[in-house]
Amino acid sequence: MTKFKKDIFEQILQSSFSLSNQAIYWLSKEGEVLYANDNAVEGLGYNLEEVLNLHVWDIDANVNTEKKYLDAIKNFEVSGPDGQANILETHHKRKNGEIFPVEVVSKFTVVDGVEYLISYAKDITTRLARTEDINFYFELIDSSHDMIFVAEHGTGIVEFANETACSILGYSLLELKKMKISDFREPFDTMDNIELPEVFKKIAELNTLTTFGIYRTKDGKKIPVETSLHLKNYHAKSFITAISRDITERLDIETKKEELNKKLADYNKTLQEEISKVKQELSEYESIMKRQSKMAAMGEMLENIAHQWRQPLSAVSVLSTGMILQNDQNMLTKDFINAGLNDINDNAQYLSKTIDDFRNFFKPNKLKNHFNLEQLVNTSIKLSKARFTGEAIDYIIKVENIELHNYENELLQVLLNLISNSKDELTKRDYKKCICIETRKDEDFIIINIKDNGGGIDKYIMNRIFEPYFTTKHNYQGTGIGLYMSENIIKHMNGRITVENENIEYNGSTYLGASFNIRIPI
């Protein structure tokens, strides 16, 4: 190689190391750091000179002694310099003591007869978090009391079933994935009595359908079910999401209802004692129906969520199955893993957003409309006063007469929540209280500021108040989703909500209070 080519090659190699999104280390066999690229230096929080004075055990929080390092590389030496790279997950330690998870790929190489160890370290904090999120979503699905299936539309072959479905039917997931829906489903003669081919035909036309049928368990038991079906195309294939619930109890109630109605007709011709007995039975029946109504409402919510989840669930199932097959055949590559995990993350994020969309905490309004900001603020104050009629709270209003085009009901929900939170704190105080609401324009945005003199927010929880289910109130006073929902509503309106503690001048005195700023497009 000519000197020119060698210089060019070295420049390209050095640029590649510098531009790599992974930390790269060149190590001696004794564990000394001989070289580290920019990503490694920045990731550890040292400068290059400091890094070059470190050893592996100064960086690796698990292999934190020279002896552990020497023991570890014995396994590396088995394959030799020409063997396969060694891949492991460990934790690295930054200069400030912070520990973070990494995936390290290491391999020996020989230069001028000397063995060196080159290692590539990738921060996997985000990947581990994504895995936890995906596991959480699957736990939600498996914890459902309804049976959930995903099946290919063309063949009816089961692609996925949750734990409830496996438990009720008596099959394992592997057994179900070898079966068709027709292997355990038959029509319900006393209900709509639709054969499965007709069901598949209708779902192709309507995309969503509710049917009744009978499921046969592995031990021969028959279970009447109501099933909500949804059709979705994914990767040029059509998949059906089926959410089935056991309606045995409902049918029993319907039977009892008919029996009670018959008895009521008969008892009208008998003594008052018999009439009283029927009334008592009817009262019990109505009580059961109320409980059933609540359960039905919960089922509808799960059905709506599942309607949105069917595609990402199918995608996650297909991707994970593909990665397992690739791994079994030793064909799993880094690019395939990264692509698969990115797709799984995208679907996981979609699932997370779906949960927010279906929070039944506010009345949804999917259409933007024109409304007056001053009138909306006055409405929020009027509605919030009903709960605190006995409290002497002054409202200081400085709101401009501005017309907005956005989601009026959703913004009203946010204002009510913030005012309510302020009042909850102010009721604990025995001095003169106030809530200030001001607005101002900033280019194409309007900023709404809501603050009080209630003492502010503890600095130790300031960064947690928008987290779901985080609350400082007793369980019977708050759910911890008010501010979380408010933040998501404002995001939905293409805006932003922030909070800080601020000194407030009121009635000749200075108070500390919480100050919320809402920034939304005009």
- What CATH architecture label of the largest domain applies? 2-Layer Sandwich
Percent strand equals: 25-35%
The residue fraction in helices comes out at: 40-55%
CATH class of the largest domain: Alpha Beta
Kindly identify the CATH topology of the largest domain: Beta-Lactamase
Number of strands: 18
Oligomer: single chain
Instruction: For the largest sheet, list the strands in their spatial order.
Output: 7-6-11-10-9-8
Class by SSE composition: alpha+beta
Largest sheet geometry: 6 strands, antiparallel
Q: Compute the separation of the termini in Å.
A: 65 Å
Given the structure, what is the number of helices? 15
Q: Work out the radius of gyration.
A: 32 Å
CATH superfamily of the largest domain: PAS domain
Mean pLDDT: 79
Protein model, in words:
Helices cover 44% and strands 27% of the residues. The chain has 522 residues and is of the alpha+beta class. The strands form four sheets. The chain has a six-stranded antiparallel β-sheet. A hairpin with a 5-residue loop joins strand 9 and strand 10.
Key structural traits:
522 residues, alpha+beta, Heat Shock Protein 90, Beta-Lactamase, 44% helix, six-stranded antiparallel beta sheet
Q: What secondary-structure arrangement, pairings included, does this model have?
A:
Layout: H1 3-19, E1 23-28, E2 33-36, H2 38-44, H3 48-51, H4 56-59, H5 66-79, E3 86-93, E4 99-111, E5 114-123, H6 125-142, E6 147-152, E7 158-161, H7 163-169, H8 173-176, E8 185-187, H9 196-206, E9 208-216, E10 222-234, E11 237-246, H10 248-267, H11 272-328, H12 334-357, E12 369-372, H13 373-385, E13 393-398, E14 403-406, H14 408-426, E15 433-442, E16 445-452, H15 482-492, E17 496-506, E18 509-521
Parallel strand pairs: 13-15
Antiparallel strand pairs: 1-2, 1-5, 3-4, 4-5, 6-7, 6-11, 8-9, 9-10, 10-11, 12-14, 15-16, 16-18, 17-18
Helix pairs in contact: 6-12, 10-11, 11-12, 13-14, 14-15
